[in-house]
Structures are given as C-alpha cells and as structure tokens.
Amino acid sequence: xxxxxxxxxxxxxxxxxxxxxxxxxxxxxxxxxxxxxxxxxxxxxxxxxxxxxxxxxxxxxxxxxx
Length: 66
Prior knowledge:
The chain has helices at about 25-30, 50-65, and strands at about 5-10, 15-20, 35-40, 40-50. With about 70 residues, it is of the alpha+beta class.
C-alpha cells in the first residue's frame, strides 16, 4: 500500500478526507484538488456542500489517474 485515504461525513453538508502516504504518492497534491493540502505524506481536505458519494467518486477518479 502506497497511500490510504479516509473519507467521512463530518457534518450535515461537510465531508472530510484524510490522506497518508509512504512518500511515493504525494497526498498533499491529490487533496489540493479538493482545496485541501498538506505534505507528501500527510494531508487533509474539508469539502462543504457536497455528499460523501460524490467525494468518493471524485477521489477514485483522481487516484486512477495517478
């Protein structure tokens, strides 16, 4: 496993993503696509006014294109 992401509903219309990596995938760059950020190995994003299924779909697309 090179990277992992946890996606959770934080509030009624807020979804959070936490990403961790062994350094081979820059999770900070991945989560910048959700207006989040961090370092190569630790990053997070907070998405407002969206639902968890849309966030999962969008993150899945990004990961497939790495």
